[in-house]
Write a structure and sequence with these properties.
alpha/beta, five-stranded mixed beta sheet, 36% helix
Length: 154
């Protein structure tokens, strides 16, 4: 029987989580896992109760903000942020967890993940944020970039 590895399994789930994204520019999903159990999920989109970007337009596109820059110029939260917020909201301890994400965390998310005690990140793809990579490396958080088998099969 051909079974996916745990990393492949959780990354496939992360891709499904990303489908809930309301971002017009990029769908991102993230999950926090401890001992092979999913503790929290997140996808990128606007805060609860606010109009989705599909209804009001993308602030970043309107202002011609390049990817990886000026994160504060966005109505949405990143998938990693939403996963961390979900864990906090429900009192879920995520120390020593693994974050699975469909893309490499940005600098803002990297700082939050470091302080939250995440010890490992498994992701697809890259993100143009060298500071994020430097901080994660300095914090000794393992970052593993997988080949995106799901996207390559489409």
């Amino acid at each position: 029987m051909d079974r996916p590895s745990w990393d492949e399994y959780f990354q496939k789930i992360t891709h499904e989580v990303a489908q809930r994204s309301t971002c017009l520019r990029r769908k991102v999903g993230a999950i926090l896992v401890v001992d092979k159990h999913i503790l929290a999920t997140g996808y990128n989109g606007v805060p609860r109760g606010l109009e989705h970007c599909a209804a009001v337009g993308c602030l970043r596109t309107a202002r011609k903000v390049p990817s990886g820059e000026r994160h504060e110029l966005c109505r949405g939260l990143h998938a990693e942020m939403n996963a961390l917020i979900q864990a906090a909201k429900y009192g879920i301890k995520i120390t020593d967890s693994t974050l699975y994400s469909t893309t490499h965390p940005c600098g803002l998310c990297a700082k939050m993940l470091i302080n939250a005690g995440v010890k490992r990140i498994v992701t697809y793809g890259n993100y143009p944020d060298d500071l994020a990579k430097e901080m994660l490396d300095e914090a000794k958080i393992s970052v593993e970039i997988m080949e995106d088998e799901i996207e390559s099969k489409r």
